[in-house]
Amino acid sequence: MLRVRIAGTGSYLPERVVTNDEVAKWLDTSDEWIFSHSGIHARHWAAPEETSSTMGIKACEAAMASAGARPEEIGMVFCATSSPDFGTFPATASLIQAALGCRNAGAFDLSAACSGFVYALETARCWLLAHPGMKVLVVGSEVMTRTVDWNDRTVSILFGDGAGAVVLEAAEAPAGVREYHSLHGSDGDGWQAILREGGSRVEPPKVPVGEIAMQPVGFMKMNGRSVFNFAVKKLDEIIRKLCERASIAPEELTRVYAHQANARILEAVAKRVGLPIGRFYMSIAETGNMSAASVPFILDHAVRSGELKDGDLIALSAFGAGLSWGGALTVWPWL
To answer: The whole model's pTM is what?
Structure first.
C-alpha cells in the first residue's frame, strides 16, 4: 500500500540565547515570574541578518541530508510561517527553494499561525500521493521575536525564533502499519484572541498624490486567558478524537508531540486526557514558543536524541490564531 513517510528531519536555532534574567534587565519581570506562568527559562533570538528564509534553509538542509535527498528530487516546498521575510510577497518558500537549488519544485507559504506545520504536513501528504515520484519539503520557520512588543511582558516573554523541517516521500508501507488519522478545524469567531494588525483591514494614512502611503504593521496582541482556555480544551479534544478514530485509548500513545506554546497548557491537557506529563515531549523551557516551527523542531530533536523510534505510536497536535487547530495520529514515520 502506497503511503507517505517522513524520510528525514532537520532543525535550526539561532546562536543567541536570551534568558529570563536578561529580559528582566529592561522589563518589569523575573525568571521566577516568567517560568511560573509559562515554563520558559530562555529563548533564542535571530541575529539581525537572519530571517525566516535563512533559518528555514538551514533546517531544510539538515532534513535533506538526513533523508539523503537531492535538490532536484524535491517537487514542492511548503513553508508554514507567521513571520515571512516579506509582509506579502514573494513567498518565503520561494526564497528557500531558490537557495536550496530545488529547480524542479513549486513553492508556497501556508498561514495557519502556530497550527501551520500540522496543516502543511497534511497538505503535503495529499500532494505527494498525487505526485509520488517526487519528494517534498515541509518547513516551519519563525522570527517571532520581531512580531511582539518587548515592553509587553504578558506576550513578548513567550516567544522565540527557530526552524524545523521534514522531507516526505511516497513508499510502500510495511504490512500491519496502522491507519493514519488527522483532523483540522477553525473557530473563526475567535479571531480577535490572537492577531497582528496590518493588511487590507488597516486603512493607510491619507497622503497627497505622488507620495507613498505605507501600511503600518503592528505588534502581536493576545488575550492570554481566552487562548489558554481554548488551547487546553482543543488539545484535549484533538487527542481524544484521534484516539477514538484509531480505536485506541490515549494511554496507548507512545508520545504526544504538541505545539510548545506554554508548559502550563500542556500540563493541564495531560491532566484532562489522563496521561502523565512525561508522555508529552517538552522543549519549551529553552526555546519558548516558536509558533509553526515548534512541532517540526521537537520532532527533529526527538529523532536525533533517539527518543523517537520507528514504530512508535504518536500524536501531533497544535493550535493557533484563527482560531485554528489540527492534529494527526500515526505510527512513526508513516503518514
So the answer is: 0.94
User: Is a pLDDT exceeding 60 seen at residue 26?
Assistant: yes
The domain locations on the chain are 2-172, 181-331
Residues in the chain: 335
- 184 among known catalytic residues: no
Q: Which of 114, 243, 262, 301 is catalytic?
A: 114
Name the catalytic one among 79, 259, 262, 301.
259
Residue ranges of alpha helices (H) inside the chain are 20-23, 31-38, 52-67, 92-100, 116-130, 224-246, 263-273, 284-287, 294-304
Query: Residue 204: how many CB atoms within 10 A of its CB?
Result: 11
Please indicate whether residue 114 is annotated as part of the active site. yes
- Looking at the domain covering 181-331, what would its CATH class be? alpha beta
List pLDDT tens digits, range 29-58. 999 999 999 999 999 999 999 999 999 999
Confidence of residue 195 (pLDDT cuts 50, 70, 90): confident
* Yes or no: domain 2-172 corresponds to CATH 3.40.47.10: yes
The one catalytic residue in 44, 102, 243, 289 is: 289
Predicted confidence (pLDDT) at residue 198 exceeds the cutoff of 80: no
Show Cβ contacts of residue 279 under 8 Å, excluding neighbours closer than 6 positions: 253, 255, 256, 270
C-alpha distances in Å from residue 222, one per residue of 166, 255, 263, 294: 30, 29, 17, 19
What pLDDT score does 190 carry? 86
